[in-house]
Design a protein that fits this description.
The chain is an alpha/beta fold. The protein has a single domain (2-218, 258-275), classed as Rossmann fold (3-Layer(aba) Sandwich). Helices cover 42% and strands 13% of the residues. This is NAD-dependent epimerase/dehydratase domain-containing protein.
Length: 300
């Protein structure tokens, strides 16, 4: 069995749905824990309720811990609440999973942890998991500390722990979403698939892994990406500028990072399916659909 915390949320609900639909090799029962009511929730509980969590985790081989609170700089009160949920909640999840005999723990984290290190660099940064985190907000601080708790507890889980640092996957305007897929974004379907792979893949051990779309760029492109990404884009995808003109979109004026996913490919077999090319093609199809509909001959 796999249990997902935060299973009513944007990511957690997708993971549970994917497991229930049999789109993976997981098989077996699935459970979801959240304080909100939803079709993807089997156990209603606050993430700090260790008693209910232990009950929900009993018999599970893996726990995927997505539950958390997001937010920008905000107020001190918001920062304290973020820390209570993201750090305190992770402590409770670890203890409950250990007590229930769970074999593997997967934590959702964020590539936003790299923000400070990326912004201080002169050229675009090829972001691997070796880049030291440089959190800049209470949320990022809380995710760094939650990661540390999980990694410190890895020895308590027979199949180890995996931390997934995920790129941007929440909804945004189409131009922004497709731009992000060039270097830092990721489709939520690929994020859900990565979590399931991390829970399923036996022998992967303990790891910290970046999860993002497959960028068209290569490390040798980084020197020019920060100044002007268009020459590199022309080399990798000559059709892009024409497609953007058709859509009335803007290319990014500068790119400060490229999130590398080689470690996730090797460790858990991560293979994103909804990358820049696919996202752009989908938007071109949607843009052309009204014209195709108007031009279609009437039938009757």
């Amino acid at each position: 069995m796999i249990v997902v915390t935060g299973s009513a949320g944007y990511l957690g609900s997708r993971i549970v749905t994917s497991l229930l639909c049999g789109s993976t090799a997981a098989g077996g029962p699935v459970a979801g824990v959240d304080r909100a009511e939803a079709p993807t929730v089997t156990h209603r509980a606050d993430i700090l309720d260790g008693v209910t969590l232990r009950r929900a985790f009993r018999g599970a081989r893996a726990v995927i811990h997505t539950a958390g609170l997001n937010g920008g700089p905000g107020s001190p009160a918001l920062g304290a609440e973020i820390r209570r949920i993201n750090v305190g909640g992770t402590e409770v999840v670890i203890a409950a999973a250990r007590d229930a005999g769970v074999r593997r723990l997967v934590l959702t984290s964020t590539t936003a942890l790299y923000g400070g290190a990326v912004r201080s660099a002169g050229a675009a940064v090829w972001v691997t998991e070796d880049l030291p985190p440089a959190p800049e907000t209470p949320y990022e601080d809380s995710k760094r500390d939650a990661e540390a708790l999980v990694l410190a507890a890895a020895g308590s889980f027979p199949e180890g722990c995996v931390v997934l640092r995920c790129g941007r996957y929440f909804p945004a305007p189409p131009n922004e979403t497709v731009n992000d897929r060039l270097y830092r974004g990721v489709d939520p379907r690929d994020v859900a698939a990565a979590h399931i792979l991390a829970a399923e893949r036996r022998g992967a051990g303990t790891a910290v892994l970046n999860i993002a779309a497959a960028s068209p760029f290569l490390p040798e492109d980084c020197a020019e990406l920060r100044r002007d990404p268009r020459p590199a884009l022309r080399r990798r995808h000559p059709f892009v500028e024409g497609a953007y003109r058709q859509l009335g979109w803007r290319l990014p004026a500068a790119i400060d990072r490229v999130t590398a996913i080689g470690a996730a490919r090797a460790a858990i077999g991560y293979a994103p399916q909804h990358n820049f090319r696919e996202a752009l093609a989908e938007q071109l199809w949607l843009d052309a659909w009204p014209r195709r509909s108007e031009a279609a001959p009437e039938r009757g």
